[in-house]
Write a structure and sequence with these properties.
By secondary structure, the chain is mostly helical. Helix 1 packs antiparallel against helix 2, helix 2 packs antiparallel against helix 3 and helix 3 runs antiparallel to helix 4. The longest helix has 34 residues.
Amino acid sequence: MFEMTPDLYTGIEQIDKEHERLFELAEETYSLLHNCVLLDKEDQIVRLTSELIDYTRSHFAHEEAYMKRVSYENFYDHYAQHKQFESKLAEIDFEELEGNPEEQDAVIESLLEFLASWLVDHIKKEDLKISMLSHPM
């Protein structure tokens, strides 16, 4: 369900590979939401969220270093969007999840909606601008 479509590739190999991994994590989130066998998903939510936080920090650091290398003029706006993404992930209250399957599914669904919209929107509206500096038309 979640995959990189051709229109989302920047042509910057490292960034594209990292975006692919972010879509894989979104797909894992989707699979967790639709897992009817697993009733208590707290551990998986914590694992996925932690991996998302760690991976996006690493990815954002690579992307920001690239933007600096190519003297990207909208660096600070782009950087602020990265920080907003990280803040949104940090808002998840894991204590409310313990032993509460309905709340767990609500958190997963909210996370999934956020990931799906943010990834596509951010790549199309922001990351593709960066690629224009190294791959002008």
